[in-house]
Amino acid sequence: MKLIVAIIKPFRLDEVRESLNTLGVDGFTVTEVKGFGQQTQSTEVYRGAEYIVDYLPKIKLEIIIHEAMVDSVILAIQNITQSGTAGDGKIFVINLEKIIHIRTGEVLA
C-alpha cells in the first residue's frame, strides 16, 4: 500500500475528487493548510490597512491506495492541477508498512 500526499490549490479540489472517483478511489483525507515556497509574497488590503500575506492557503490530500494505482492517481492529480506556474503544488509517494483499523483491529498492509 502507498500513501500519496498532494499539496494543491484549493479551487482544484472538486475537480481532483471527481477525477479520482472515476479511477475508483473511494475516499481520502482533506486538510486545509498554509505554506510557502517559490511563490512570491502578496500584499492584501483589509479594512484600509495593507498587510503582507506570507503563507498561502493550500489543500493537503492524503490518499491510501494499492501500488498498482499509484501512476494513474498521480497522473490524474497532475492533469488537473498543473498550470506551469509556481504554486501548482507537490505530490509525495510514501510506503506504508502497516495499516490498522482502530475499530476492528484488522491489519491491512
Could you characterize the architecture of this molecule?
By secondary structure, the chain is of the alpha+beta class. The chain has a single domain, classed as Alpha-Beta Plaits (2-Layer Sandwich), CATH 3.30.70. It is built from 2 helices and 6 strands; from the N terminus they run βαββββαβ. A hairpin with a 2-residue loop joins β3 and β4. It is elongated and about 55 Å long. The mean pLDDT is 90.
CATH architecture: 2-Layer Sandwich
Give the strand content: 35-45%
Total number of β-strand segments? 6
For the record, the count of structural domains works out to 1
The average pLDDT value, as a whole number, equals 90
- Structure classification: alpha+beta
Low-confidence stretches: none
Task: Please provide the ordered H/E string of secondary-structure elements.
Answer: EHEEEEHE
The value of Rg in angstroms is 17 Å
Strands in their spatial order, largest beta sheet? 2-5-1-6
Q: What does the main sheet amount to?
A: 4 strands, antiparallel
User: What's the N-to-C terminus distance?
Assistant: 6 Å
Broad shape? elongated
Number of DSSP helical runs: 2
CATH class: Alpha Beta
Helical coverage, percent range? 10-25%
Q: CATH fold name, please? A: Alpha-Beta Plaits
Element layout with pairings:
Elements: E1 2-8, H1 13-23, E2 29-35, E3 42-46, E4 49-53, E5 56-65, H2 70-81, E6 90-95
Antiparallel strand pairs: 1-5, 1-6, 2-5, 3-4
